[in-house]
């Protein structure tokens, strides 16, 4: 019973640590991502113009336009990624001949990382789609309104669509 409790605690720790890491990553990286999207959609010619234009139009909080989608998507994505990596490591350790206390080889670590990408991708794609639509929309629109708009325009397939030509 103690082994089950320990495994559950390890899973929860991985999940929570990943979720917290996801929040930190989003809050740190979103202003850069927004600037990149503004440049990619030809709304500005330079990074400086995009930054100054965002400040002028929306103030400092404008750099977090569309942040709800990545927070809702990246937080569970990181949580699942950390959890999947730990599960992948345990699977690799169970399949190998070496004792569990021996460190994993680079190939085994890579296999565990590959395993973690499978469930992570299923979570990431729809949230990325909503985020990009929110970032390029001229008006301030909520996460749920954006999901509804995308759904109206193309159904569930449109929400799951990862790449959209500009």
From TrEMBL:
GO biological process: carnitine transmembrane transport; mitochondrial transport
GO molecular function terms listed in the Swiss-Prot or TrEMBL record: O-acyl-L-carnitine transmembrane transporter activity
Gene Ontology CC: mitochondrial membrane
Subcellular location: Mitochondrion membrane
SUPFAM superfamilies given in the database record: Mitochondrial carrier (SSF103506)
Topology in the lipid bilayer: Multi-pass membrane protein
Family annotation (InterPro entries): MCP_dom_sf (IPR023395), MCP_transmembrane (IPR018108), Mitochondrial_Carrier (IPR050567)
Matching Pfam families: Mito_carr
Keywords: Membrane, Mitochondrion, Repeat, Transmembrane, Transmembrane helix, Transport
Solcar repeats: 9-91
Record's keyword annotation contains Secreted: no
Family according to the record: Belongs to the mitochondrial carrier (TC 2.A.29) family.
The protein's name in its UniProt record: DEBR0S1_20406g1_1
Species of origin: Dekkera bruxellensis
């Amino acid at each position: 019973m103690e082994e089950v409790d320990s495994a559950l605690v390890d899973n929860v720790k991985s999940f929570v640590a990943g979720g917290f890491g996801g929040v930190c990553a989003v809050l740190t990286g979103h202003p850069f991502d927004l600037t990149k999207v503004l440049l990619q959609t030809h709304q500005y010619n330079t990074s400086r113009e995009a930054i100054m234009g965002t400040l002028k139009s929306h103030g400092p909080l404008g750099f977090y336009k569309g942040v709800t989608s990545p927070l809702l998507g990246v937080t569970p994505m990181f949580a699942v990624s950390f959890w999947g990596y730990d599960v992948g490591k345990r699977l690799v350790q169970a399949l190998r001949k070496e004792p569990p206390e021996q460190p994993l080889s680079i190939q085994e670590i890579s296999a565990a990382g590959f395993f973690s990408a499978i469930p992570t991708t299923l979570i990431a794609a729809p949230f990325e789609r909503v985020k990009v639509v929110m970032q390029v929309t001229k008006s301030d629109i909520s996460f749920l309104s954006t999901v509804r708009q995308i759904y109206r325009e193309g159904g569930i397939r449109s929400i799951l669509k990862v790449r959209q030509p500009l």
